[in-house]
Design a protein that fits this description.
- Chains A, B: This is Octaprenyl-diphosphate synthase.
- The structure is a homodimer of 337-residue chains.
- With 337 residues, chain A is mainly α.
- Chain A contains 16 helices and 2 strands.
- Chain A has helices at 7-23, 25-37, 45-54, 61-73, 78-102, 113-117, 119-140, 143-165, 174-200, 206-227, 242-245, 251-259, 262-271, 281-291, 294-312, 320-334; strands at residues 106-107, 110-111.
- The first copy, chain A, has a two-stranded antiparallel ribbon.
- In chain A, β1 (106-107) and β2 form a beta hairpin.
- The longest helix of chain A has 27 residues, at 174-200.
- Chain A is globular.
- Chain A starts with 6 loop residues before the first helix and ends with a helix.
Chain lengths: 337, 337
């Protein structure tokens, strides 16, 4: 399939998220109120730092999925709002800790919270938001939901540790890469979808929505990883190369290296070692990822997971939610083009 | 009262903890089994790092309090074991993050986990154990207990942030110091005692045991803070000066500075600024804390809280547990002598 997006595609894609945000307007307003109220603290740094990252231009993708999953099988209630806010807090806490772990100075083009308030404050406010996420989940009144999200939280941490151990490991098997992103990213999408369905009032489709969430999360992260190298064309204004500079071995690199010549192997070995990496290496890495077709192959992998996400929805009641969740899976992949 | 411990006191004190450990032997064995089982992960760094810190010579004071609170009003059940393990995991997670925040190379005289595995692994394994603590609490089947511990967890993080903001703040009011240690230390003792009582089967004495835990935690931390300056006499083999080197303004410093001469003020200002601190400053700080009587005054403050802890137990059923919890409060203070 074509890898360049037409203007019509872009307009259509924007509409999926717009439509979801519009349909979920009252739910999302309730979630925003909770995000603000539950980050409150007499210790100023906490709400300041929290608001900085919580309002840093995130699309609220995880709350949207949580709420839409509830609507797809029943109805979002006030307990669903608490759940959606909890999911966003868990996500925010992991971002704060990731920035410290990855030594990233920027997050979505803005200085990372740790660049403004320091590593210590980022670690501790992450802990605070994580704890508040659990208080929010207690408000849902469901031990089952607490079990799902506490389990997902330990899986996320496990994935992050595994990613840390895989840093610079050039022969990382694709399966290990997928296991890492399934844990660090897809587990929260999966938990949000499953818990959203349960919170919406039905356990009948909880497994299906969990599968949707997991595959969507995989597609989402694979696309993120190829976008870090500019996708198939450089995206102007998009900061690229973070993963590369951190020596993260992601799918575009795995494929480019596998398809590359012997001299490329030596290049990857030197360039993905943060000690020996040179300024000009990123441009060559991008060149190799493009010329070996690794970018397209990576996107094809993401498309496969997006397809699995859509298939998982097959038995859901035919509502606009089912349709929009399906379109959302496409949207997650199309942003790579 | 006398500030030097007699041999008889020491023997008696050792017996309190020994007695509790002996009486709680089967409960503590169950807790240890959970601590090991729930730190399990296919990602080797996680159990390795967890076991390193979980078995690093801690006395299991928080699990002991949790279990004893349950027995004091009812009986420790398997859900109490899960709770006690959860409390220890929360404590362990905060230690891992504290070592990164405080840049401490040692913990209980051994290299800190972060000195062995690095900051990133310490942050992420802390997150993992924190998540596993919540999974353990889901196993207790009590939303009330989850609410108590999730709230305590956010209060702990709040206290740590507040402590961070107070670093080097020489005019820190005593009330602010107490608010910090109440949050960062006493909140977990309080939550463990309250939740322990509820888990034991009675809400009747939960407030009393919560008050016991809070005051015990305050006494415990105040004693820790004076021990960091060697107490009233240097303790051989005890590493001192960590707080001082980090510019932490604790009660012995607040009192010594308040009672000191003008030239001492200038000394404290320079010495508690980590940028201008000199090697020989710790010895002078210890000297000033002793000669102004700040060490004794600090211990007297701890004794007052230990007294409040014991008073809180007044209406509890007269059992050996009530007696031992009372003696434990004395023990926490006596280690300062």
């Amino acid at each position: 399939m074509s890898i360049s997006a037409t203007a019509r595609d872009i307009a259509k894609n924007a509409t999926v998220v717009d439509q979801l945000q519009s349909l979920l307007e009252s739910d999302l307003t309730a979630v925003e109120t909770l995000l603000k109220a539950r980050a409150a603290s007499p210790v100023d740094i906490i709400p300041d730092l929290s608001q900085y990252i919580v309002t840093a231009g995130g699309k609220r993708l995880r709350p949207i999925i949580t709420l839409a999953a509830a609507h797809a099988v029943g109805k979002a209630k006030s307990s669903t709002h608490a759940l959606a806010a909890a999911v966003e807090f868990i996500h925010t806490a992991t971002l704060l800790h990731d920035d410290v772990v990855d030594e990233s100075d920027l997050r979505r083009g803005k200085p990372a919270a740790k660049s403004v308030w320091g590593n210590s404050a980022s670690i501790l406010v992450g802990d605070f938001l994580f704890a508040r996420a659990f208080t929010l989940m207690v408000d849902t009144g469901s031990l089952e939901i607490l079990g799902i999200l506490s389990n997902a939280s330990s899986v996320i941490a496990e994935g992050e540790v595994r990613q840390l151990a895989a840093q610079g490991k050039l022969d990382l098997p694709t399966e290990d890469y997928l296991a890492i992103i399934e844990a660090k990213t897809a587990a929260l999408f999966e938990a949000a979808s499953r818990a959203g369905a349960l919170s919406g009032g039905s356990s009948e489709h909880a497994d299906a929505l969990a599968s949707y969430g997991k595959n969507l999360g995989l597609a989402f992260q694979i696309v993120d990883d190829v976008l870090d190298y500019g996708g198939t064309t450089s995206v102007i204004g998009k900061v690229v190369g973070d993963d590369f500079r951190e020596g993260k071995v992601t799918l575009p690199v795995i494929i480019a290296r596998r398809r590359g010549k012997t001299e490329d192997h030596a290049f990857w070995a030197r360039a993905l070692n943060v000690e020996t990496q040179e300024e000009s290496d990123l441009a060559r890495a991008i060149h190799l990822i493009r010329t070996t077709g690794a970018a397209e192959a990576t996107i094809a992998e993401a498309e496969a997971y997006a397809g699995l996400a859509k298939s998982a929805l097959a038995d859901l009641p035919d509502t606009q939610w089912k349709s929009l969740l399906g379109q959302l899976a496409d949207f997650c992949v199309k942003r790579a083009h």
